[in-house]
């Protein structure tokens, strides 16, 4: 059975917070509101998705009709993000070298993200790394998204792997819940906005830097 590692995308392989926040502020501007989100301060919210950013903006503006604004703004946010998807985005140090080592060792590698599939593909293409992953499951690939286990299982299957010899690498509680739902180990990165606070989610492993990722693989995929 092929060993498999499935990665989250935003906040795990790449720091996409700058472009996500810019897209959220653009959507707010198109709806007649002042920008509400700040890079650095709101990165953790950005990694939770577009609706989370708009909800935070609504709270800051004390909007009475918050949900209506979120539903109106979400398509505007996605459109703005697609127009300028990689201006500020960068891969985390050592991420693709770690992926390369996995592939060289015969480990299947895929992505399971809550970014819409089309935008995820667009971003991987712009970063020049699409050919490094055997699968990609996005938020809208299936009827359900993380933390439901189905997208994770689909990512493993599409990569040619076996669920019982796989684990998920992520950065948020959503990833931790997904791994639990799928019955697989989880490794959480500590270089995101919340730092080592992710240890409170009790993952099977922590990733402080991708240079040391081989140790995690040896631990979780013996």
Automatic annotation (TrEMBL):
<dbReference type="InterPro" id="IPR023198">
    <property type="entry name" value="PGP-like_dom2"/>
</dbReference>
<comment type="pathway">
    <text>Organic acid metabolism; glycolate biosynthesis; glycolate from 2-phosphoglycolate: step 1/1.</text>
</comment>
<dbReference type="InterPro" id="IPR036412">
    <property type="entry name" value="HAD-like_sf"/>
</dbReference>
<dbReference type="InterPro" id="IPR006439">
    <property type="entry name" value="HAD-SF_hydro_IA"/>
</dbReference>
<dbReference type="InterPro" id="IPR023214">
    <property type="entry name" value="HAD_sf"/>
</dbReference>
<dbReference type="InterPro" id="IPR041492">
    <property type="entry name" value="HAD_2"/>
</dbReference>
<dbReference type="InterPro" id="IPR050155">
    <property type="entry name" value="HAD-like_hydrolase_sf"/>
</dbReference>
<protein>
    <recommendedName>
        <fullName>phosphoglycolate phosphatase</fullName>
        <ecNumber>3.1.3.18</ecNumber>
    </recommendedName>
</protein>
<comment type="similarity">
    <text>Belongs to the HAD-like hydrolase superfamily. CbbY/CbbZ/Gph/YieH family.</text>
</comment>
<dbReference type="Pfam" id="PF13419">
    <property type="entry name" value="HAD_2"/>
</dbReference>
């Amino acid at each position: 059975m092929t060993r498999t590692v499935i990665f989250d995308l935003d906040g795990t392989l790449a720091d996409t917070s700058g472009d996500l926040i810019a897209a959220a502020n653009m959507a707010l501007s198109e709806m007649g509101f002042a920008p509400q989100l700040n890079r650095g301060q709101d990165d953790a919210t950005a990694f939770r998705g577009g609706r989370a950013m708009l909800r935070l903006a609504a709270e800051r503006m004390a909007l009475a009709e918050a949900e209506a604004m979120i539903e109106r703004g979400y398509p505007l946010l996605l459109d703005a993000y697609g127009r300028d998807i990689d201006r500020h985005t960068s891969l985390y140090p050592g991420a693709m070298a770690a992926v390369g080592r996995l592939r060289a060792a015969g480990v299947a590698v895929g992505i399971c993200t809550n970014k819409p599939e089309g935008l995820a593909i667009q971003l991987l293409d712009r970063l020049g790394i699409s050919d490094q992953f055997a699968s990609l499951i996005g938020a809208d690939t299936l009827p359900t998204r993380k933390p439901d286990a189905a997208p994770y299982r689909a990512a493993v299957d599409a990569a040619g792997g076996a669920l019982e010899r796989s684990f998920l690498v992520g950065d948020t509680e959503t990833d931790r819940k997904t791994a639990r739902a799928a019955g697989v180990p989880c490794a959480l990165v500590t270089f995101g906005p919340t730092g080592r606070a992710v240890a409170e989610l009790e993952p099977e492993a922590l990733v402080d830097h991708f240079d040391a990722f081989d140790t995690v693989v040896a631990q979780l995929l013996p």
